[in-house]
Design goal:
The structure is a homodimer of 375-residue chains. With 375 residues, chain A is an alpha/beta fold. In chain A, strands 3, 7, 8, 9, 10, 18 and 19 form a seven-stranded mixed sheet that branches. Chain A has a six-stranded parallel sheet with strand order 13-12-11-14-15-17, sandwiched between helices.
């Protein structure tokens, strides 16, 4: 314990009452693990798109100001009109960031000694930091030989992919549609569905993304930029009998197009009804990559549902099954659930203009890793 | 039985392969009740908005042609481009119309003799006719003194209103929002919610509709034509803690505005989360009065759902509770569940230009009654 520093650095996001977002590094006393807790030296934490929703608070980063010394950068940017009202609950509170990561257990409280020295993955807030305290029960010890970098993305994407397939089974669907499917998550889902024999339709925006997924073994990939998109989608939904979709875009016409394709597929069988088919068609919105309004051109009767979907309440409803899912993640960490990163950043580098610009571009498939202790 | 005619007349709707809608009266042999069935002389059958969806098939009735003799009128109108493809399942099949009605049991099959001479209400298709056969189990004998006109609308609106309140209780909500609320159904719901102590927000389009509902005792009425609509809605949703809405419009921004108001109400309590409140907000779409696309400006986090809702599958899921609901309808037929009609029409009059024009205007609160045997 003697090598541990007295303080830790954390990336923080602050919304001020005058409508400014401020991103900075804040020095805090090194946290001390209580009973059943561990202190983890965070060695790797990924930047997921959802992390940036909170971190950037929707500010206009094209007008960002960069100041402070190289090792303590400060970014400020104006918020949109009305944003302060929407964000009232966080005004004036400096919020930590990050939702998962991995590292080494460097100290433990009573009851958690078995984890000392282990490399563990963890889910939850405040992983963009040098150190973080976590409940031992929420740590996933990585298999022998797996590095912190291997395990950094063990929670959000793997559990979301497993959550989709679990939801499919629970609700009695047999085929699945995913959007923004060239993402890290989308690639993972292709591998998972191949392994679990779940017919999957992946919707992407560009031909090269379609090729990438096909190279992973994806059988049904529909490209929204193709002139034949709607026909392709109907054919793929028909071939897979997909009646469940997960939509990461949350805007535009895509969810409605998916429901329409499902209805066309469902209407080819069964008697005619003016109320539409009786086959239930479900779309879960799990992201907001497209901030434009969602437009539903309702031509799919009344047997349909559209709902928000978040990982945390899904996991809360899993109970003991959560450990089963995490066990599978650990076992397939470097295969099904392997993540690839566009680049690595220190905590300070995570606030430089190039990095900030990359987050705001939301380029599908790009994913950065924060490595707080890298030389 | 000797007074019964050899044939019956039915209103029919036919979509032809060349894209024409044809409405007419068709003479059919008088149906004969089988075991456990009754033959009902239909004395009153209401024209509900949903009946017109199928009957008119979305044809352009501003270009309708009226022909045939006064007692056998024929209406033809062109269908929109692409409609034939959408309606492929019914092309060439002459469909009966109507979804409920009431009348006198004039003949019975074995096992249904107890109903002979009774005035009964019935749900199901083909009630725009002189006579109709029905399973005795699906007939609701009306209380002594109740006329066929009193009981004509015993199924669709009363069971929908009861379905809303039943859904509210089953899903654990405590307050309810309804749209197009000046309708016959909306008025019924005001009376039902007052009686059952369910806080209700009624959304209407015009000041005089708001006044009508207030005269029935409605406490929370929001008028979309008021400049203060959104503030009024937030205040009403907050006051009622409504987290469930039934939307009859199915188009435009209204469902999204309701979800936004619910989120504002939910966000005033509890800790801030960038993912929105954890209070689940649900909108069921049960109609399509507004044919424009539905636009969702998502500012209500991820704890929300939007689904189609139809009476028939809801009733199918009720099991034995269905008789309980019908018993209540019979007991409160002339109070909570009383319907009022704009006018009465014979089968032939139902096809005259004035009537056809009234259906297509979808004027909220207007409701016609077909009285096939009126002098």
């Amino acid at each position: 314990m003697s090598e541990l520093p007295a303080t830790s650095l954390e990336l923080r996001s602050l919304v001020t009452a005058d409508g400014t977002l401020e991103l900075s590094l804040v020095e805090v006393p090194l946290p001390v693990p209580a009973d059943d807790e561990v202190l983890v030296r965070i060695d790797a934490a990924p930047i997921n798109p959802t992390d940036m929703i909170h971190f950037l608070a929707g500010a206009d980063l094209s007008r960002a100001d960069f100041s402070g010394p190289a090792d303590r950068p400060v970014v400020t940017a104006p918020l949109a009109d009305g944003a302060v009202r929407r964000l009232a609950g966080r005004v004036g509170t400096s919020l930590p960031a990050g939702s998962e990561g991995a590292g080494t257990v460097v100290a433990t409280g009573t009851g958690a000694e078995a984890l000392l020295g282990r490399t563990v993955a963890l889910g939850g807030t405040a992983t963009y930091a040098h150190y973080r305290v976590a409940n031992a029960a929420f740590c996933l010890p990585l298999p022998d030989g797996a590095t912190a970098k291997d395990g950094a993305s063990s929670f959000v994407n793997p559990l979301t992919a497993l959550g989709m397939v679990t939801t499919l089974r629970r609700e009695g669907h047999t085929g699945l549609v995913n959007t923004a499917a060239a993402s890290n998550l989308g690639q993972m889902l292709v591998k998972l569905c191949l392994r679990d024999d779940v017919p999957l339709v992946s919707i992407v925006r560009r031909p090269e993304q379609a090729e990438l997924l096909r190279s992973l073994g994806a059988k049904f990939v529909c490209d929204t930029s193709a002139r034949t998109f709607m026909d392709d989608l109907i054919a793929a939904v028909t071939a897979t009998s997909a009646t469940l979709a997960f939509d990461a875009t949350g805007g535009g016409a895509l969810a409605s197009q998916i429901l329409t394709a499902m209805e066309v597929a469902a209407s080819t069988t069964g008697p005619f009804s003016g109320y539409g088919s009786t086959v239930h068609k479900q779309v879960y919105v799990y992201g907001g990559l497209d901030p434009s309004p969602m437009v539903l051109t309702r031509s799919y009767g009344f047997a349909w549902g559209l709902s928000g979907w978040l990982l945390t309440p899904f996991l809360a409803g899993l109970g003991g099954d959560m450990r089963t899912l995490l066990g599978r993640v650990a076992a397939e960490l470097t295969t099904t659930f392997a993540s690839h990163y566009t680049g690595e950043l220190s905590l300070a580098q995570a606030l430089n203009p190039q990095a900030i610009s990359a987050y705001t571009k939301r380029a599908t498939g790009e994913k950065y890793l924060i490595t707080p202790h890298a030389a």
